[in-house]
Amino acid sequence: MRTTIIIASNLLARLFKRHGLFLSVIGLLLSGLQILICAIVSSVNLEGAMREISQSLPPFMQALLSEEFALGLTSRGLIVFAWNHPVVHAMLAAAMILLASRAIAGEIEAGTMELVLAQPFSRHTYLTTQITFAILILLALISLMLVSIRIGLSIFNLQRVLSWQTFLPVAVNLLGLEITIYGVTLFLSSLSREGGRVATAALLFVLISFLLQAVARLWPAIQFLLHYTIFEYYSPQQIVVSNGISWKNIVILLTLSLVASGAGWWRFMRRDIP
Fold it and tell me: Pick from 22, 26, 198, 203: CA 20 to 30 A from residue 87's CA?
């Protein structure tokens, strides 16, 4: 047992050494974006500018803006949008896809999986350590976003507009979304021997889901597809409007994550490691 703990600790240290720089950069960018949005909202009359821009856009784009800004083109709505910005989704998804694709397929492709499992270290413990590392990283990144939005609201005197506690249920919802992306990627990783292919497939899954949600909301004929996109179950704007989180969305995201990661776990325990 002691040997297993030591090896697991060494694996965690190895993972942080390998991915630490990339994840740290993502953390800094996510943090800076939250503070930057607060700075822009406090120093520029964005509400007037956004209204002017909106009026000059074609009806399709106006409808898209109204979907994205459930709180309206206000300072409050713009601050909350910082948690649903494509850049935020791109960075968090990149972190989850990287960790999950490298966990199995990436290690096999690099030829290091056999070396790791040659130690007194079961596949069960190996995958548990990988998943634990990913969850810890995700918690750290989202916590950093919370701290940054609190700092931004305080520095630029925006507490009267929005309280940082408002983002706590949003953070829970975001956690569920990113865990789902990790679970789906882990499943794909368990089926492949090449990390690059897994990352590409997972990226396409996220991109198609994101774009499909945006289009389906504006195209009544395909609105039934909304329920098949993971981003439909993450809506910070609606959380703020309703002053509460939709636990149904959390349950759906976590269920999908458990099913995907469970299937990946089952496959990894039974597959050959060349």
Answer: 198
